[in-house]
Amino acid sequence: MATQTSDFLVIFLVTCLGFISLCKPLLGFIRWVWVMFLRPPKNLRDHYGSWAIVTGPTDGIGKALAFQLASHGLNLLLVGRNPSKLQATADAIRERFGARVETRNVVVDLAKTSGEEISKTMEGVIKGLDIGVLVNNAGLAYEGARFFHEVDSEVVEGIIKVNTEAATWITKAVVPVMAKKKKGAIVNIESGSYGGFCSYPLYTIYAASKAYLTMFSRSIHMEYKNTGIDIQCQIPLFVATKMTKFKRSSLFIPSAETFSKASLRWIGHGEHLCVPYWPHSLQCLVLKLLPESFKDRYIFHYFSGMRKRMMQKDSRKIRPNTNQKLSNT
Ligand SMILES: NC(=O)c1ccc[n+]([C@@H]2O[C@H](COP(=O)([O-])OP(=O)(O)OC[C@H]3O[C@@H](n4cnc5c(N)ncnc54)[C@H](OP(=O)(O)O)[C@@H]3O)[C@@H](O)[C@H]2O)c1
Questions:
Q1: Sequence spans of domains, the chain
Q2: Which branch of life, at top level (predicted)?
Q3: If you placed Cys at 60, which of 115, 199, 239, 241 could pair as Cys (CB 3.0 to 4.6 Å)?
């Protein structure tokens, strides 16, 4: 009798464990479908405030995000380095949304302005505004894959300043305002190169700058999560923009517009790190399953190929000039 009871207990426990281990991925899948396709986006204006700040709104993801935020009724502070491109974005927003959306341009070169100056400028321009959302989107990458020693010093400095320092100092200007009114959302646009999936050789400085921003976001998310400020890191993989030079979008390389629509659905939902676009999230799942050494070797091989092709192209560009010089002499 005692052996029968213990047999029954063992079978019962094994069945329970089997059921739980089956439930976990099933529940994970159901949650994934909910957050990717069904969960309604937050009403950002009502929830956080009527103004949004977007850095780098003159192209790519930042421009598309500015339009998305405007379509949700937020007024915009557009922070960029090029006055005419900023004005063109502001004009396009006015044309699409009319007087419903107010825009203000803030001209600041984030690569050439000191952190404290950026912070002071931002403190000045946000005075009196009901700042609800900050999107730290402005970013710089290399023109092409390169070894660390091949990257121009100016490019290294620009990447560190725009991708890490500027986001830090703008956040520093905005957090006290949000903390005072006990609400606000800060979104940092990261990259799949941030270190969570694999190494990123030949784009080392870019990847390292994104790793900084990830840890920055993750840590201040903990510091401020009980004060009403939601801080989130969003991870795009490839998006067809000026930065990546992909001319055409596809399922796995969306347009900036498609990515920005997905991005907005995630703001304020509590996840401090997220991959907003669903095909990217599938790619990340595969990346997580692959062994580290395979990923590291593959990515180095992939970017080395890109570097080789870029150098061949560059040498073809240089050759006609050399010929011309020769024929002139
Ligand atoms: N595209 C992708 O596949 C991808 C993937 C992962 C992460 N991301 C991240 O997404 C963000 C946006 O990238 P994107 O692809 O949209 O790039 P993009 O098309 O090159 O646009 C970058 C934006 O940043 C602005 N910017 C650059 N340097 C600046 C400076 N010194 N001062 C002020 N503004 C400056 C640009 O202004 P100008 O118009 O004046 O150049 C532009 O508005 C970046 O943080 C990037 O790292 C992109």
A1: 41-289
A2: Eukaryota
A3: 241
The response to whether residue 60 sits with its C-beta less than 6 Å from ligand 1 reads yes
Distance, in Å, from the CA atom of 279 to the CA atom of 178, rounded to the nearest integer, reads: 33
Total-model pTM: 0.92
Q: How far is the CA of 66 from the centre of ligand 1 (A)?
A: 13
Is 239 buried (19+), middle (13-18) or exposed (0-12) by CB count in 10 A?
buried
- From CA 151, how far away is CA 316, in angstroms rounded? 20
Q: Closest ligand 1 atom to the C-alpha of 163?
A: 45
8 Å CB contact between 307 and 146: yes
State which ligand 1 atom lies nearest to the alpha carbon of 138: 24
Beta carbon of 67 within 6 Å of any ligand 1 atom: no
Per-residue pLDDT of the chain (329 residues; tens, 9 = 90+): 666 777 878 787 888 777 777 788 899 999 999 999 999 999 999 999 999 999 999 999 999 999 999 999 999 999 999 999 999 999 999 999 999 999 999 999 999 999 999 999 999 999 999 999 999 999 999 889 999 999 999 999 999 999 999 999 999 999 999 999 999 999 999 999 998 999 999 999 999 999 999 999 999 999 999 999 999 999 999 999 999 999 999 999 999 999 999 999 999 998 999 999 999 999 999 999 999 999 999 999 999 999 999 888 888 776 655 444 433 33
